[in-house]
Amino acid sequence: MFTTAAASSTWLTGFTVCLSLIASIGAQNLYVLRQAVQGEHVRACVAWCVVSDALLVALGVAGMAQLLGSSPLLAQWLQWGGALFLLAYGLFAWHRAFLATGGGLDAGGDRVARGLLGVVSGLAVITLLNPHVYLDTVLLIGSIGARQDGWLKAVFVLGAASASLTWFAVLAFAGRRLQRVFANPLAWRVLDALTGAMMFVLAWWVWRGV
């Protein structure tokens, strides 16, 4: 018999596990923070991240985590693919910081605005084509959720989605608070340089399988 206490404990487990994994420096988080600083389609970015996280966790709970866990070779390819993805993301960031003319700014020194489709499409690529996402969200979080009984699996996914919503709402708020800092075009180059450096460190970390 399932109780309110069991549901609360399962929800908290989903919330805690998901928050502990997504609350870190990563390509998706930096993309959302960047859009929040620019003030472009922030709500759409947050909505995409929450829905995609919930769906990926649900896929893991439904059985994909078991599939990945039973195939060490596939998990190894995902690890290497994630490292290469992060390396490429870092190189693009350093290209914007050191080589790109204007660093993404127009002739007046303002950021070049993008449409909703372009912003969300870029976020979708970062989310779904990053192999390391499947190791974290589907395999690690999903395998924990799959251990829950019956309808508690759905409660676990809800807890994970709540953690995702909380985290990306915090990122959006932080981005708005930083808008004055990034009124200076040089700040964008510094951000891109730091982003590239962090992506290289993460790529090494993923490649080593630490």
UniProtKB/TrEMBL annotation:
Pfam families reported for this sequence: LysE
Main location: membrane
Annotated membrane topology: Multi-pass membrane protein
Keyword Cell membrane: yes
Domain of life: Bacteria
Organism expressing this protein natively: Melaminivora suipulveris
Record field: transmembrane: 12-33, 45-65, 77-94, 115-134, 154-174, 186-207
Subcellular location: Cell membrane
Keyword Iron assigned: no
GO cellular component: plasma membrane
Protein name: Lysine transporter LysE
Molecular function via GO: amino acid transmembrane transporter activity
Keywords: Cell membrane, Membrane, Transmembrane, Transmembrane helix
